Amino acid sequence: MSQHLSKVQVSRKNEEFTPDKASTGALSRWLETDNKRLRVVVYPSGYEADHVCYDGHSFYVVSGSIKIEFGEEIAEWNKGDAFIIPDDVPHRVFNPFDADAKVIVVDNG
Length: 109
Hints:
The chain is an all-beta fold. It has strands spanning 18-19, 27-32, 37-43, 57-63, 65-70, 73-78, 82-85, 92-94, 101-107.
């Protein structure tokens, strides 16, 4: 293996999803280096985050739908939607839909 490829963090499609370390009740495949984190997250039907998050994230909805609460506002995001939440914008994710949602989440920073 080359010196460059050996430094690449990998999660293959057949790898199992495990409980997400940042989103209690969600499942993920988690990749992290010193200053970057990427998660493929499954928010199951009925999921509600147990906290309001102030860290920024970039999202891409692979399948299903989620809603995110921004204070008094609620936005719905569906398959194919991509968006970036900046740092210091309080938000809470939930999935009130019948189907699970699979979302790619990249933490800003």
